Amino acid sequence: MTYRQRKAIRIAGWVFLSIFLIGCVGAVIAYVKRESLLKSGLERAIRKAKRDYNLDVRIGSAKFTGLSSVAFTDISVVPEERDSLARIQRVEVAVRFWPLLAGKIGLSGMTLENGLVQVVKRDSLTNIDFLLRRSRDSTKKESSRRADLSNVAENLIDNILSKIPDDLNISNLEFRGIENKTRLSLLTQTASINDEVVASTLKLNGNEATWHVTGTADPADREYDLALYADGKPLELAYIQKRFNLKLQADTVRAQLRDVDRAGDEFRLEGVGSVRNLRINHPAIARTDVLVPQASMDANLFVGENYVGVDSSSVLRLGEASARPFVKYTLKPAKIYEVQLHTDQQDAQAVFNSFPQGLFESLEGMQVAGKLKYDMVFQLDTSLPDSVKFESGLTQEGFKILKMGRTDFTIINQPFIYTPYEKDKPVRDIVVGPDNPDYTPLNQISPDLRNALLTSEDYNFFTHKGFNEKAFRVSIATNFKEKSFKRGASTISMQLVKNAFLNRNKTLSRKVEEILIVWLIENERIISKERMYEVYLNIIEWGRNIYGIGEAARYYFSKRPADLNLGESIFLAFVVPRPKRALDWFLPDGSLQARNVRGYFRLIGRIMARRGLTAPDSGAYGFYNVRLREGLRRQIAPVDSLYQTDSLMTEPIDGIDVENDEGNGIGNFFRRLFKGSKSDRDNNRTDEQPTVQPESNTPFSGETAPTDTVKTRKQLRQERRERKRREKEEERLREESGNP
């Protein structure tokens, strides 16, 4: 070693020694002055809370109890002119040394005695308004800075996990929520983390229930495995049932956090959630309690710069069945929704056994053989809604039904009793078979009627297998663009299943059950297409208490179904969406109002003509030949001549879906689920049928009927707009029907 090297080492040694001595002196000074430093730090924090949040923070005493532990007594936090937010008699915290060197505060220990934290809402005011305002302001600032979501998520999770101590002892800490006269309380009698073992006892609303959180926690490695259960009864919050009419119970809820990490530009979180004996009851979900014995999910969550999601490596388990979900939500530059669900080939009986009890009542007890595989892909770019992707398929291998469940779907193949319901009450029993004089076999129904209804409802009925993916895609795009549920995608197969087997169930589960039954019927060929269409025409509602084409033909036109002409057939197809309003479209002389109706005739007629189902007509395809039978005409109220002014050029026909389903579609299904249904929503069409939305019969304010044949500029503009709209509509219909 040279002289210069030895000299450099000596200099470096003296420098490090000097730094160490200076650090020791600083540490000694800080230790001696720590009480005053603590006092000044608390004073700054109290001033900041008052200045930024209008909080009155008071601390009775604060002192060090160890090298890195501090004890506080008589703490209170009161927002200005609001109820108290928190009161704590005594709390002692100890911080971790190494994170402190990096400028982060991590707790190594905490002891808390006799505390209360409450959120109070009185009318529109709460005692956490300061937080809500701050959150909104922060959101605006973050959005203006285009914050990286992965950094936001990482900082949030890091701050939460770092505040969980290695050693925890809590006694008598109450969390209370008060909303006007409603009160919810959760008292933590004891809660502890000792040697990574978690134990706690919590009292819900006094002695209403005793809950426990148990398991293991390793805050240093950020690994947790916790279970929540109640003594002698299921977990349940009466507040939820009272507030939302939702019964929600579970025997045990378990959560595991396995890993929190950064992978490149993504923040990732890996964990497991499970529930045992979950019970759900809500009028919008199912008619009875739904029981899920066992469900779990291995979830791998990811957060990127502008997106969040669930990775496809996640596994969702329901009973004996499992699936791999993928969910991704991109926020910018345009919102993009992506959802996928895939399964491997699974034992079909295991899949059916995994259906929650009470969810699909008609399938309970069904025995099947073979294997099933399901794949679904959905993607919606909100900037390009017409490019929506939707693919869904249930693939079978050797599948067969060995035994029907609670409902025998083959009953349709022979005469049976059909009972329509309105407002959950039976209307009357209808014999679907030769014993009913109004029952009409398919070959005795006018071809015009059969073709008109297929054209307006489901023109691919005889070729598809119960579903029309293209209709689903169009429906999704249309509803998104309209910002409301304007169009559904039900086929005649789905409508028939709903009417014949699920008529009384206006629930979310009924829709899924309907799809499953349609797949079973179509895949197993339980019912022929001809028989399905025949039954459909003989049970759907065509007017107030008018069921089946036999009753409808006689009621409106004093005819047999075989004698219906083209105009009468198109009219009957027109009223299917809202049969109870059928008579509203007639004038006192028995002719049809031109408003909306004539446009429908021309549209359906042209499509039928292009498909070779009727002769081309330069008129309105039988519109002027429709005459209501004389006995019903006296029920028609006089109509002002203003509303007899027709035409297709000036009257919109929005809402028609010649492919499947629109207007009165899925939107009304969800509205009915949560808001109830109107009396004029019929049993055979309650949620899936297309409809023509009529305009109001009241003139627009300030408008008067023209008194001569000279058209105003406004009328001409309306005609041009309607002509363009009609051309676009016809082009869309040609594309959907595959006609050039």
Describe the structure.
By secondary structure, this protein is an alpha+beta fold. The protein is 32% helix and 30% strand. It is built from 17 helices and 28 strands. The strands form 4 sheets. The chain has a 22-stranded mixed beta sheet that branches. A hairpin with a 4-residue loop joins strand 8 and strand 9. It is elongated. 26% of the residues are buried. Residues 640-711 have low confidence and may be disordered.
How are the secondary structure elements laid out?
Blueprint: H1 3-53, E1 55-64, E2 69-79, E3 86-95, H2 97-101, E4 107-122, E5 125-126, H3 129-145, H4 149-162, E6 167-179, E7 182-194, E8 197-204, E9 209-218, E10 223-230, E11 235-236, H5 238-244, E12 247-250, E13 252-263, E14 266-281, E15 290-303, E16 307-310, E17 315-318, E18 321-330, E19 336-342, E20 346-347, H6 348-353, E21 367-381, E22 389-403, E23 416-418, E24 421-422, E25 425-426, E26 430-432, H7 447-457, H8 469-482, H9 492-501, H10 508-524, H11 529-539, E27 541-543, E28 546-547, H12 549-557, H13 566-575, H14 597-610, H15 630-633, H16 666-675, H17 713-737
Parallel strand pairs: 4-6
Antiparallel strand pairs: 1-2, 2-3, 3-4, 4-5, 6-7, 7-8, 8-9, 9-10, 10-13, 11-12, 12-14, 13-14, 14-15, 15-16, 15-17, 16-18, 17-18, 18-19, 19-21, 20-21, 21-22, 23-26, 24-25, 27-28
Helix pairs in contact: 7-13, 7-14, 9-10, 9-11, 13-14
